[in-house]
Each structure stands twice: as C-alpha cells, then as structure tokens.
Amino acid sequence: MTITSTQHIAFFGATGGCTNACLVHTLNAGFHATALARTPSKLVDMLHAQGISQDVMDAQLTIFKGDISDIHAIKDTLTNHVAGTTGAVTLASQIISGIGGTPQMQMSLRRPVTIDNPEICATATKNIIQALQEIYKTQPSTALHKPSIAVISTTGVSDVKEDVPFAFRILYHVVLADPHKDKKEMESLVTENSGTTFRGAVIVRPSLLTGDQSVKGSGRQGWEKLRVGREEEPAVGYTVHRADVGQWIFEEVVKTGGEGRFGQRITLTN
Ligand SMILES: NC(=O)c1ccc[n+]([C@@H]2O[C@H](COP(=O)([O-])OP(=O)(O)OC[C@H]3O[C@@H](n4cnc5c(N)ncnc54)[C@H](OP(=O)(O)O)[C@@H]3O)[C@@H](O)[C@H]2O)c1
Q1: Fewer CB near the terminus (10 Å): N or C of the chain?
Q2: Which domain holds residue 120?
Q3: Domain NAD(P)-binding: where (predicted)?
C-alpha cells in the first residue's frame, strides 16, 4: 500500500529505544507521524539528539501528551492531523507500538522480576482496539481504510517452537514469566483483531535488547544483517540492538506498508 501525503503513521511507546529509532527513520524518510507520549519533552529531546530538526518536527510530527489508559488521547493519535488538510477524518495508515513496562525486582525466588505494570502491553492493545472501534462506529467512512499494526513482543513466548538459546531459558521462562504472559496476551489480541479491527498485523519478537535508540550509535550490527525468523523457523540468538530492531521495522514494515509481513511472528536477532 502506498502511503498518501495526507496519511500518517501513529506511534505508541516512541520514547522506547526500538520505537524511537523507527520514528527517526520514518521522519527522515519524509512520512508524517503522530506519537502518544507521557512526557512529550522527553520525546522531543530524544529526536533532537538524533538529528531531527525542529522544522521537521513542526512539519511532520504531532505529539499528544497522554497515557495509554486515555482513550481520548489514543483517538487523537490515530486520527488525521496532517498540516493543511481539512474535512473528513482519516485514520493512520499504520500503527507502530513498542509500549512496555519497567522491570522491577521483587522478593520472590520463583518470580524475582516483575514489571511496574504487569498488564501494560495487553492493556495498551485493548485500548487501541477500543479506540479504533469507537472511531469506526461514529465515523463509518473511516472503516474503509483501517490501519495495520506492528507490535514489539519478545522471543520466549512461542507455543510452536523454542526460540530462546539454551543458556537463556531459565531467564526467559522463569525469571521473565510475568512480562511474557502480558506479551502473549498482546499477541493474541492483535491476532484476533487482524483483518477486522486492523487491516493486518505484524508481530516482531526481538531477542534480548541491547544499546539504545541511537541510529548512529556503536554496537549495532546493521538491520540488514539481522537474522530473521518466523514462528515455525525462528532465528535463535542471544541479543539484538534496539536501533537495529527499529530500523528493521521501518524498512520492512513502515516503508513497504507491511503487507508482505501480515500474519507473521518474526524473530529478530544478531
Ligand atoms: N528488554 C529486553 O531485552 C526486551 C526484549 C524483547 C522485547 N522487549 C520489549 O520490547 C519493547 C520495546 O523495548 P524498548 O527497550 O525499545 O522500549 P522501552 O524502554 O521498554 O519503552 C517502553 C515505552 O512504553 C512507554 N510506556 C510505558 N507505559 C506507558 C503508559 N502507561 N502510557 C504510555 N506509554 C507508556 C514508555 O514511555 P515512558 O518513556 O513515558 O516511560 C516507553 O515509550 C518493550 O515492550 C519491551 O518490553 C524487551
């Protein structure tokens, strides 16, 4: 699908490393974008640090302040805010979500790591679905051009094939059980709503994330050198750099429209 000049890509979790890197490439390529951020100044500072000028931000990006629990702010992020356009509401052509919680240690031998909000990914997905369904109901014409969604999940949640290297299995299947339950719920919601609420869906499962969002930072392997697997034939590896994951999502999903990846659960690793 070709993105028209009045369409935009909606970002959730863009102050996270992978999604921020994806947004940087999206803006550099000239696309319009919206982003929901709890702290807009944090997002602006991250984009400035990556060389995105204020002029580019003014022309191509609209940031909405809000939490993912705020359906109204989600609706704003999903609807059209391209400068110079008026008239009927149009929706984002794509949604990119890298929402995730902050890991926290707890006094438990069985579950030493939990996250600040153990249902954040499922909640975010439910709320995006609810927001879209309410928009379709009040503005039926929007349902003719539904957005696709790409979410960042994780390895270690497959029911089909083991995609975690042997040395990481206790970490992934015991220590990280709480965040992974949330990711599985997110994946189910996205899959169930693909073709109905969403035009299509792509699930990206990176291995252990390293580095930050810096697209020019060190430690990157390069997005085109990543090993890419599918649920049935996962690419099994230890780590992957956030900036590489973000660029991979830009190159393979944002830039292309993502149709060739719809329905896939993609493992990404070095
Ligand atoms: N750590 C790993 O090794 C690993 C491995 C595989 C997958 N993952 C998953 O991959 C995804 C991307 O990870 P990352 O490290 O690039 O990013 P991250 O640092 O986990 O960023 C999370 C993002 O979610 C946002 N967020 C959290 N709660 C929110 C709320 N209530 N409302 C609105 N926004 C909220 C954060 O915003 P604020 O800036 O406001 O906090 C931030 O933008 C995450 O889901 C992560 O769990 C992680």
Answers
A1: N
A2: 8-269
A3: 13-251
